[in-house]
Amino acid sequence: MSHHHKAHDIAKVAAARLNAAAATRNYNVTPRVDYRTVVKVDGPLVILDNVKFPRYAEIVNVCLGDGSVRKGQVLEIAGKKAVVQIFEGTSGIDNLYTHCEFTGSTLQMAISEEMLGRAFNGSGVPIDKGPPVLAEEFLDIQGQPINPYSRVYPQEMIQTGISAIDCMNSIARGQKIPLFSANGLPHNEIGAQIVRQASLVKGKDVLDHSDENFAVVFGAMGVNMETARFFQTDFEQNGSMERVVLFMNLANDPTIERIITPRLALTTAEYLAYEKELHVLVILTDMSAYADSLREVSAAREEVPGRRSFPGYLYTDLSTIYERAQNTQQILYRLFSVLQEIIFI
């Protein structure tokens, strides 16, 4: 009898080991090191000491003393020191209770076709009282490299319904155009009008021209509450909200968040264009708020400033956003156009 029990126990242990092996088969479990070595907080930056093997652009989870968690990104590595920029701002971070966890991966966003018709803040968190996005994929917000040879010569047009743009400065698919503006001019109204009226112009090269095959991704950076409410109510009242993905960084949100807002918008647009085969128009307003946040980070790092105190790499950084507009041909036409609004006063 005891022999039977012993065999039964051995079988149970073997089954448990088999189940454990099956459960962890696809997981590469690496322990994450937790650091409590904050030595300095400078503007949007946190400086950590005694960090082992930090990686450039690695995402860091910063846990505050009150239990809240903020995300940051490694900007600079010097020996054992790591400089981390915090996307949600550094207020409340101290060197006593704050601890930081290095994830070992770059910033990725949960993405899905269900994002159409939804509104998100500048970090990609829903602000429309809806549920979180059920991710179909997790994509790197820096985008994927595009083979220049696969780009198609821009011939097809997107009609904005504004004669000055359509006649004098028309938008071809895969192209980007700036709208230069200044304080007091109706750039918000023009942006909202383009979202309402933008449509495809039929051409023999394109397979599907239905409205269901056209989407707009709208990214707003540094806008005030009045402007944010204007955009949201305008889209909802005109029935275009169901084809729009809205990313809004408000003026009272952390300025550092604006660095990732346009990249979230473009990653969403690339997913809808390449995976879901939609025609996507991206509108970003305003890019001077993005440039201001770059200037803030540059000043905190004590870099040599360029013109108007903007960093010398401003144009290089802007090109990483603008060059993600393209018109590529793989199996079908996957079309993706970008309209940026740049407001330099």
TrEMBL record:
Sorted alphabetically, the Gene Ontology BP terms of this entry are: ATP metabolic process; vacuolar acidification
**UniProt domain ATPase F1/V1/A1 complex alpha/beta subunit nucleotide-binding: residue ranges:** 161-329
Enumerate the spans annotated as ATPase F1/V1/A1 complex alpha/beta subunit N-terminal domain: 38-104
The UniProt record lists the keyword Ion transport: yes
| InterPro entries to which the protein is assigned, alphabetical | ATPase_F1/V1/A1_a/bsu_N, ATPase_F1/V1/A1_a/bsu_nucl-bd, V-ATPase_su_B/beta
- Keywords linked to the UniProt accession: Ion transport, Transport
Query: Where are the annotated coiled coils located?
Result: none
User: CDD domains in the record, alphabetically?
Assistant: ATP-synt_V_A-type_beta_N, V_A-ATPase_B
Superkingdom of source: Eukaryota
Enumerate the GO terms in the molecular function aspect.
Answer: ATP binding; proton-transporting ATPase activity, rotational mechanism
State the NCBIfam families in the record.
Answer: PRK04196.1 (NF003235)
What is the protein's name according to its record? Vacuolar ATP synthase subunit B
Native source organism of the sequence: Paramecium primaurelia
Lineage in the entry?
Eukaryota, Sar, Alveolata, Ciliophora, Intramacronucleata
